Amino acid sequence: MLKKHSSFGGIKGPILTIVMDGVGISKNEQGNAVTFARKPILDKLFAKYPNITLRAHGTAVGMPSDEDMGNSEVGHNAIGAGQVYNQGAALVADSIKAGELWSRDAWKEIVKGATNGTLHFIGLFSDGNVHSHIDHLKAMIAQAKKEGLKRVRVHALLDGRDVPETSALDYVEPFEKFCSELSDSSFDVCIASGGGRMKITMDRYEANWKMVELGWQTHILGEGDKFESTSLAIKALREKFKGTIDQDLPPFVIAKNGEPVGTIQDGDSVVFFNFRGDRAIEITRAFEEKSFDKFDRKRYPKVTYAGMLQYDGDLKLPSRFLVPPPAIKNTSGEWFAKCGITQYACSETQKFGHVTYFWNGNRSGKFDGETYFEVPSDVIPFEQRPWMKSAEIADAVIEALKSGKYNTLRCNFANGDMVGHTGSFRAATMAVEAVDLALARILPIVDAMGGVALITADHGNADEMYEIDKKTKEPAKNADGSIKAKTAHTLNPVPFILYDNVSGGKLSLKNLPSAGLSNIAATTANLLGFEKHESWDESLLAMG
After folding, report:
1. Are 198 and 248 within 8 A, CB to CB?
2. Which of 11, 279, 400, 420 could covalently link to 202 via disulfide, CB atoms 3.0 to 4.6 Å apart?
3. pTM across the whole model
């Protein structure tokens, strides 16, 4: 049990944490959809209520360095856990650097499984370090050659989301050279297939299984438009589908003499080299589930399969993984449940896993006293409907608040992130405006119930919608003179607002230089009238 707070009995009403996904704070107004959005509620909150900024990237969320952007997974891990754990990127990089990956049974089984066949790598093909890193892929290919494997094939999912939107050739062309230099009479490596990450394979939360089916047809069956090389494929597809950014490019298959160079067959090994789990689970299920029924696989090869990490610990997916995930213990959800605190979590499909699974330390099951509510996301390009499901989430949160059943609630508005990833500046301003409208509806109910709200974000995105030229500090331009859109997360801090109309001004926030997302759990505990768990980072609540 958490100890009762020594000097504060807690707020009598509910404590609501609102995560405005992808809404960071940038001093640069150029391309800043958060600044340019009409947001009277947020403007009022910043002007009249205690607010500070929190670190939401780099080492503050367990990434290897402060040059690494944050993401929704590590962000929600930090918020829910109240502490910082080394995350996927750091875990994998450390494991490779120390040589531990090669000594584990999983890697040995992958090598053994491909001794008389082919070792396939499928994953996001960039150095964005959000889902994967191309350096991890290259290290594994080099090790495969060192251990005597003869044939390696890569199935490259093009990024353009965590890296510049049309940067695919910046990764593909050097990699093709890498493969050429590594190949010799005893070792053959090349890219066998690919496509945009938002077009094939990398669906999440079962939002669009057609993406995974298309990926299966491309990578495993070798079905689709055929090209002599990946660089030629990208150039041809860009010419055919003008204006399409990397993440949306159609699938392609590399062929010689009309035949695919790398279909996946019985007796092969397959590594899905993404370390982040949300967009790895569905393709993993297609490889591992014998009674799989989400689409017709047509052919189900008997392979030795591994993920870079285990993507779902409770579901044991995958059963074989190259690097053990961080053991996240003593989450706020766990300890609030032990104290009899009732909890409510809500978002739409795109971020539902973040306020549940990731919030609770990569744990699928509910704790006692938890209630989850998922609003199904639309399957439509987000720039075409930037309000997404903000109204429906607000409806659900308002109903939950009014019920009086919950001591603490949490919700996520996906708009700033999902629309920010599209690169559409105008749609991103509308996304922020939709969230602001939701706040206008929810906060009066918080007041009516005698509660307090903590309003924050998990990382930035909509706050930088343009690529900025490092030399001129002006928006970068495409060849046609148009502004180059930025679709990746930012390194900016995020807001942390204390919405409190019940304490009579007795509560405020401590502006610690090192304050980050992991300080939120202890702050929430204090508002509930409890001391923080000993493992959690410091509370930011100031009293008196």
Report:
1. yes
2. 279
3. 0.75
Two tokens, residue 87: 């995350």
User: Which amino acid appears at position 306 of this protein?
Assistant: A
Helix extents (H) in 66-204: 72-81, 88-98, 100-103, 105-113, 134-146, 168-182
- pLDDT tens digit sequence for 156-187: 999 999 999 999 999 999 999 999 999 999 99
Whose structure tokens read 């944050």? Answer: 70
Residue 412 tokens, joined: 């996520």
Beta pairing class for 252-256 and 188-196: antiparallel
DSSP code of 366?
P
Give the Cβ contact number of residue 385 at 10 Å: 17
Question: Which tens digit of pLDDT belongs to each residue from 53-72?
Answer: 999 999 999 987 788 889 89
Q: Which two tokens stand for residue 262?
A: 């790398």
Tokens 């930090």 correspond to what residue? 78
C-alpha pair distances (Å), 469 with each of 25, 54, 484: 19, 26, 10
φ, ψ (nearest 5 deg) of residue 56: -135, 25
Query: Measuring CA to CA, which residue among 365, 159, 376, 176 is closest to residue 276?
Result: 159
Q: What is the DSSP letter of 173?
A: H
Which residues have a catalytic role annotated? 72
The strand pairing partners of 356, in sequence order, are none
Read off φ and ψ for residue 121, nearest 5 degrees: -120, 125
Q: Return the residue matching tokens 């090598």.
A: 111
Let me know: does 130 contact 489? Beta carbons within 8 Å. Answer: yes
Closest CA to 80 of 344, 340, 328: 328
> Which residue carries 């409907």 as its tokens?
385
Residue 125 Cα distances to 67, 96, 169, 523, 539, angstroms: 19, 18, 10, 39, 39
φ, ψ dihedrals at 509, nearest 5°: -120, 140
